[in-house]
Amino acid sequence: MITVTQGGIYYCKGGRGNPVFFTEDSDPITIEKRVSNKAVVSLEPSWPLIFSGEKITVRCQISLGGSTEWEYEWSKPDSSTGLANNASINLNASVINSGSYRCMGKNKQELYSVTEWSDAITLTVSGNRPKSSISADSRVLPEGDTVTLTCSVTPSTPGWSYYWYRGKKTSEPLMMAEVVLHSDGQIGVSQEGDYWCRGGRGNPVYYTDYSDVISIKQTGESW
């Protein structure tokens, strides 16, 4: 038995007699030296629920890295592991990407010097496209006043911006100069017409489906 203080690939063989008769080499065993650097895995963006088709980055960061160059080993939901020079995995999310991700770093300058595995982070991907809905505090527009429209996304998750439309579905989103912005999900409109909305988030923008159309009429017109 021996005690080793360096990482590397070790093997042994036996010998006896004079001259020495040697056995064949044993199978090799790899000894890795654990370093104090900490590996941390994160999601960008870090929304709790991702939808199929959204862009997501799984990133590995190693603390106290200094000028050290690292290789990164990943443990992924499909149970595969592999080395990569890049500290991130870019995904066009799908349901099969759901699961736990972990990473560790391997020092390129000091062979067999490695970090501990990071804690796992869970990526949850839904295969169902989120839906937008629109509502109005009134469908009758008083002369000289506004009607408040509200857009919401189901399931309710963080990160959404709201895009508003009037007229045909091929139209461009309404400009803020055309409406009164009450909050991120509410606007006031002063023109009659057919309105609908949808949500979007991320870069590039991932859009929900369009909401149903809601019709706003001027006071005095038949409903």
TrEMBL record:
SUPFAM superfamilies: Immunoglobulin. Transmembrane segments: none annotated. One of its GO terms (cellular component) is external side of plasma membrane. InterPro entries: Ig-like_dom, Ig-like_dom_sf, Ig-like_fold, Ig_Fc_receptor, Ig_sub, Immunoglobulin_dom. Residues 28-115, 130-198 form the Ig-like domain. One of its GO terms (molecular function) is transmembrane signaling receptor activity. This is Ig-like domain-containing protein. The lineage of its organism: Eukaryota, Metazoa, Chordata, Craniata, Vertebrata.
